[in-house]
Amino acid sequence: MGVIVNLEDKRKKLSPLDKMASLIEDDLKAVNQEIVTRMHSPVSLIPELAGHIIAAGGKRLRPMLTLAASKLCGYDGTRQILLATCIEFIHTATLLHDDVVDESELRRGMDSANALWGNQASVLVGDFLFSRSFELMVEDGSLDVLGILSSASSVLAEGEVLQLMTTGDTETSETAYLDVIESKTAILFAAACELGAIVGERPEPEREALRAYGQNLGVAFQVIDDVLDYQAQEDTLGKTVGDDFREGKVTLPVILAFSRGNDEERDFWRRTIEGLTQKPEDLAHAQLLLKKHGALDDSIERARHYSAIAKDALGLFPESEIKQSLLDVVDFCIERAN
Questions:
Q1: 72 class by beta-carbon count within 10 Å (0-12 exposed, 13-18 middle, 19+ buried)
Q2: CATH at 92
Q3: Tens-place pLDDT, residues 102-160
Q4: Which residues make beta-bridge pairs with 107?
């Protein structure tokens, strides 16, 4: 006798990201096809290198947010396809540039593009993807879209420079840290979500609500990423655990541990983060100090604060399956640290 499979129970087992992907399945397939089409170039190295980094780029969270926000706003056209592709190209360009700046050798468990093709090729292909994204903005034809995405691109670059300025500075404040992650991460989340209200021609309060949702989700997402750098397993993190520590990046866990530490502990952070004079056992000692002062747990609580604001921002939208999916994705981003 055959076994009856309860499809509803099976669906409930999907992760929040997989659930969202199922709700926007056709659009997501169209975006993936558009990515392949739009990164084509007669210069063979460009699609080869771009294809490598895009394949290693995870679950397409940012373009998925554009598609989901468009659906939330009742839009049933096709503009969201090009705009989600544009978001993915901007994000991928920043990844290529980041890996060069950080001298990263891994990207989600795969060799980084700069490790395979060198820094020059990675920077130039990143430039190509930025340029292609602006072609897509122009093709859409909306000055609103052009304004949102060109501004986001500028702020992204500013965020990377801000991070460079705080690297190695153990006196960095929590406010300065938040300025960095709001610029280098949250701004693209905010833009990706706001685009849904633009294509849906929704009123200003809904546009602001989606922007606030994306902004706060982006902050929470980055704080959790910074926590995971000290506590995740490499096969799940997608890069070498402790990369931020080895590069002298001052993230929220370090800021909290430094401010709560004694003189000896602060000297340790100055030697390892400011001076980049590190011994093989220093990462383990850093992790002990973070645990001692509750820096990781408190960082997660900070992320929960921003995730609550993100969820509250969607309060003016009526209940629907896609709205619940957007709310569930917020929780998913936090639960990565558990």
A1: buried
A2: 1.10.600.10
A3: 777 666 667 777 777 788 989 999 999 999 999 999 999 999 999 999 999 999 999 99
A4: 110
3 occurs within a structural domain: no
**Count of domains observed in the chain:** 1
Give the pTM: 0.92
Report the distance separating Cα 121 and Cα 125, nearest Å. Answer: 6
**How far apart (Å, rounded) are the C-alpha atoms in residues 274 and 168?**
4
Question: Can you give the residue range of the structural domain that contains 249?
Answer: 16-335
- 267 lies in a domain? yes
Q: Tell me the β-bridge partners of 111.
A: 106
CB 61 within 8 A of CB 92: no
Predicted confidence (pLDDT) at residue 273 exceeds the cutoff of 90: yes
The residue whose two tokens read 């090729």 is 121
Higher pLDDT, 117 or 20: 20
Question: Which residue, among 305, 332, 315, has the nearest Cα to 72 in the 3D structure?
Answer: 315
Rounded distance between C-alpha atoms, residue 182 and residue 94, angstroms: 15
